[in-house]
């Protein structure tokens, strides 16, 4: 999914906190934890409630700007609002108007969030107060312009692409994307993690590759990212790995995996998430299906699959569904925590998928 300049619109207003309905697999009680091969429908955003419930649901619908699990174990999402799914399965709005135009999301605590907005990286609190962590207003850095290895965070001019915080390395540094550069932010300084090589064919500015939304970092600090242009999307075989020592490689993939048609490297890549170890979960697509794959140590495993069904009626809030035959549209963004994948965005549902 290509990121455009400015912020990603979150889409049409949709809502509702609770929906009433049955479940796949009989009359089991709601809110039963999923087992391997199952997903729990945490939220259905296609109802008709108004007010705070509606605003909260907007954080989990439309094109996702950020999705993560906080240190408190709760699922946070940034759409047209910043919202959270609480332990009692209710959804709350943390920031509404203050979050408009923001992108990327790192949760430091239940009251401290790192996002990109305008040409700056900000720490925002639930009361709306904000602190500039990186970027100064004024003339923007041009894409393709070589950047220094280390710069002062608050005085540096970022590019005119929306900064997107996406993770934290083991040393506590915050990682964010700035157009064609990945930076790590710590103690008031920016250190370059990676810059996309400039093209050698004289292509105009619209063809300058930029790093796509949905980068990830694993437990060892290895970053997973891919770049694309307006006309050339990134495939799974294009995903880069950038280790803490700065070495850059390609994601180690098998040729094929059971349950997925064709060459894995040719799948189009969406969102990615570290697996809590030394691997990555990837949301990928072909012309016939959407997939979630787990890739680690040169091996791959199919975690979930959407065969492009025609109806979303099979996903009832609070009930379990088969992850290999999803009866609803697979969400776009994903994040991982403690044996569970969470998926949201560009779908009427939020899913919790068991991986262990």
Question: Summarize this, please?
Answer:
This protein has 356 residues and is an all-beta fold. The chain has one helix and 28 strands.
Characteristic key phrases:
356 residues; mainly beta; 5-stranded antiparallel beta sheet; 38% strand
Would you kindly provide a written description of the structure presented here, covering whatever features stand out?
It contains 1 helix and 28 strands. The model is unreliable at 1-27 and 48-52 (pLDDT under 50). The chain has a 5-stranded antiparallel beta sheet with strand order 25-1-28-27-26, with no helix packed on it. The protein is globular and about 50 Å long. The protein has 356 residues and is an all-beta fold. It has one helix at 52-58, and strands at residues 38-44, 66-69, 75-78, 82-85, 91-95, 102-109, 112-117, 120-124, 130-134, 150-152, 164-168, 174-178, 181-186, 189-195, 210-211, 216-217, 223-225, 227-228, 240-242, 248-250, 268-274, 280-285, 290-296, 299-306, 320-322, 333-337, 340-344, 349-354.
């Amino acid at each position: 999914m290509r990121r455009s300049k400015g912020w990603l619109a979150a889409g049409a207003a949709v809502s509702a906190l609770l929906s009433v309905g049955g479940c796949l697999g009989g009359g089991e009680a709601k809110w039963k934890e999923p087992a391997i091969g199952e997903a729990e429908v945490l939220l259905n955003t296609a109802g008709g409630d108004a007010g705070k419930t509606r605003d909260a649901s907007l954080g989990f619908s439309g094109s996702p700007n950020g999705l993560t699990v906080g240190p408190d174990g709760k699922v946070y999402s940034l759409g047209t609002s910043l919202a959270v799914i609480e332990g009692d399965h209710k959804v709350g709005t943390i920031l509404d108007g203050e979050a408009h135009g923001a992108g990327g999301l790192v949760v430091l605590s239940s009251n401290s969030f790192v996002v990109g907005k305008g040409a700056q990286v900000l720490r925002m609190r639930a009361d709306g107060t904000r602190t500039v962590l990186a970027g100064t207003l004024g003339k923007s850095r041009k894409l393709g312009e070589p950047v220094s290895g280390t710069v002062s965070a608050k005085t540096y001019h970022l590019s005119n692409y929306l900064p997107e915080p996406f993770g934290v390395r083991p040393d506590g540094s915050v990682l964010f994307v700035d157009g064609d550069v990945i930076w790590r932010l710590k103690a008031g300084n920016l250190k370059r993690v990676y810059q996309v090589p400039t093209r050698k064919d004289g292509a105009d500015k619209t063809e300058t590759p930029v790093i796509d939304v949905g980068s990830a970092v694993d437990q060892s600090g290895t970053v997973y990212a891919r770049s694309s242009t307006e006309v050339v999307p990134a495939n799974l075989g294009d995903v880069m790995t950038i280790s803490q020592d700065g070495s850059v490689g390609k994601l180690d993939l098998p040729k094929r995996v059971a349950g997925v048609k064709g060459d894995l490297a040719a799948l189009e890549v969406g969102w990615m998430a570290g697996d809590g170890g030394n691997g990555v979960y990837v949301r990928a697509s072909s012309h016939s299906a959407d997939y979630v794959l787990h890739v680690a140590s040169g091996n791959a495993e199919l975690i979930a699959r959407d065969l492009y069904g025609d109806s979303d009626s099979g996903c009832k809030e609070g009930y379990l569904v088969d992850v290999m035959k999803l009866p609803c549209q697979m969400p776009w963004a994903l994040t991982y925590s403690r044996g569970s994948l969470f998926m949201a965005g560009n779908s009427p549902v939020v899913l919790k998928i068991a991986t262990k």
